[in-house]
Write a structure and sequence with these properties.
By secondary structure, the protein is an all-beta fold. It is 0% helix and 50% strand.
Length: 127
């Protein structure tokens, strides 16, 4: 059985955003076109971000899938580490502030940067 690698941006027990990898089993379909089970979603949004933009540190409002359709997006974590996502890449953004904790821009969340000369085009899929 094959699996789909799910990259998750999440809030760890210390309140800091981190990446982890999970897998989704591809148990449906055919050997030529393997599928996961269906997942519900309520809506999606398309976004275009100009080249050169860097955001302030922030958290995901609610957990969502982010699909990179064009350009490149760098996710920067509080510890200075980062990861670049290119067209065809995706990740699950679930780095919400800890329950009951007010947002602290020096501890929580991530920043984003549009990498390269092209605008970033993304699709957000909300659960």
């Amino acid at each position: 059985m094959n699996v789909f690698k799910k990259i998750v941006l999440f809030t760890d027990t210390d309140g800091r955003a981190r990446f982890r990898e999970e897998t989704i089993d591809l148990t449906e379909g055919t050997p030529q076109m393997q599928l996961s089970a269906r997942f519900a979603c309520s809506s999606y949004q398309l976004r275009q971000t100009p080249a050169g933009l860097t955001s302030k540190f922030h958290c995901s409002g609610t957990p969502l899938w982010v699909f990179i359709l064009g350009g490149q997006m760098e996710i920067i974590l509080q510890d200075g580490s980062s990861r670049v996502f290119k067209p065809g890449d995706c990740f699950y953004g679930a780095d919400t502030p800890p329950i009951g904790a007010p947002f602290n821009e020096k501890v929580h969340g991530h920043a984003t940067r549009t990498v390269g000369p092209d605008p970033l085009i993304t699709m957000f899929v909300h659960g």
